[in-house]
Structures are given as C-alpha cells and as structure tokens.
Amino acid sequence: MSNKKSGQMGETITWVVATVVIIVILLISIFISTSYLGGQKTASFSKTNDVFTSKSFFAYLLTGEGETIYEQIKKEENLNDFNGKLAVDIFKKFYKEDYEDIWLGTVLIEMAFFEKHTSNKFFGNEPKKVKSTNLGGIIDYPSIRTKIKLDNLLFVQGEENKYIELALTNPK
Amino acid sequence: MILKNKKGDKIISVYWFFVLFIVTAAIVYMVLSFYGEPFDVREVEADILTNKVARCLSHAGYLESNVLTGNFRENFLEECGFNFKTENVYGWGAMGQYYVEINFSDFLTKKQNSPAIKKGNEELKIFCGQKGKTMPVCIKRSFYVLDKNQGKKQYQIDILSIVRKTEKNVQ
Questions:
Q1: Who among B37, B60, B154 is closest to A63 (CB)?
Q2: In this predicted complex, what is the ipTM?
C-alpha cells in the first residue's frame, strides 16, 4: 500500500515539474519574441549610390570660369590649394555626418585590382579600405566610389589610367 | 487481475488538453506580437522623396534653368511630378502627410538669395529633431550645384523632406 502511494507521489511530482518546465520555457520564448523580435520593424537598405554626393561631385568638377577644376586636376595630376579647399568645403562639410571617411583625389589604375592613390594634404593618403573584425581578420569597408577618367576615354590594359575619385566609406 | 484506474486516465487527459491549450496560446501570442507589428518604411520613403527632388532640380552638375523662377516655385509639385495626396483614412485627408522644403543659398556667402520652396503640411516641421517612434521622419540633405544662367554661380541647395503616416507604419 505504501509502495503504491510512493509511486503515485513520484509520478505526480514528475508531472508538476514537467508543467513548471514547460511554462518557464514558454515564458522565456514569449519574452524573447516581444522584447527582441517584436517592436518597431524599420525597413532599411544598404546604400550603393548617393544622388547628392554624385551631383555635388559633377558640379565640383565643372566649377571654374575658363579652366574647370576637372581640367586643373588633369593638368596638375593632383589637387591644388583652390580646388582642394573647395572640395573640403563641399564634401567634408556637407557629408561628414553621413560617412565615416571621405576621400577625394587622383588614382592610377593599371590593372583591375591595382590602384595607386596619390596623397594630398586635404584628404590624406588614400581612402579607408579595410577594418579589423572581432575574430582578428580584416574585411572591406562598405563604400561608394565614383571615378572619372582624366586621360583617354577608354581604360587601357597594361597602362597607367588616371582617374579623379570620390570615395565615401562606411555610410552611417 | 489488472486494475485500470479510469479516473486517473480522465484526469491525465484533462491535464494534457490544459497543457496543449497553454502552449497553443503562447505560440499564437508570439506570432501575433511579431507579425502584428507593421514595417516602418517612412525612412525609405523620405529618402526616395529627397532623391527625386534633387534629380528634379539639377542635371549634370547644373541647376535646371527654370528652378529659380516664380512659376516653378508655385507649380513645384506638378513640375517635378509629385502627388502628396493620400488615402482618406485616420484623418489624413485633413492633415497632409508630407512636407518638402528647398532652400537656395549662395555657396560662398551662405546667404539665401532666392525664396524657399515649401510644399505640403508645414506643421510637420516642428516635430523634426524630436525623438519617439510616433514622430514624423525627417531627412535633411544638401548638395552643391552651379547655375549656368548666372555665369556658373555656385549654389548650396538644402532639401528637407518629412513623411508622417504614423498610423500605418507604427503601432
């Protein structure tokens, strides 16, 4: 008789514990779904181009009575005091809140992945390209790059092709 | 002799239905709490609006020739192909859900030398800068442009776009 009672008690306790475990798991799931997965869902998109910086870039290159900035950079192969300061006034002031790094200058491209940026005192040596990851590796920064050719119209493989480039790194 | 505790079986069945009901209710609640929230697309909408305004105002680095005229300012929505009308729900018919403001200033002197273009519900402007998910979404961006008609005069154009539509995007 006492064995039956022990058995019944054991089985009852098992069911009670199982019920408590089920309820705890459900409460954790509900908490996760309402706190982290629920709430406001904001649609966003990754930027692959920027209308405003493109428009500013084209207008910048066309600036100048007589000789445009594009022609100045093509002749001097780098920024000078006038067009360098203007570039800072436009791009760093208008868009510094939108991007982590902004670089403008000339770049030589010989082959598809071989680029040589020309350093200038207004924007530095070259655009930020990579960042370290938590696992010790490096990955490319997301960036929007606009290049306009300074010499021949077509890209010539094996030769140095000159461009003026606006690089916008890591949109915020 | 095998004794069957029929009463025990009945109690177990009731208990199982009870657990099933609790689990089902929890799953339904989790699904409703996730999928019940709408997607907030106002930031995307404001971004598209801002880009479209910029494309209407300038082309290839130069300001469009009619932008600084009174006619363009008066008929801005028609000239740029915008329609700020919305469905007549949640009182939107009486309260505009969009606002666009365009300011033209001299890039060198920073002085505004043309009247601003303002279209839509200007009252939404007071909510810009305030935090909260029920606030309208404001986007302000600027760009540099030249006016060919005035000897390549340098302009700074500031565009402010605001989208409200809170009732459909936020719960």
A1: B154
A2: 0.82
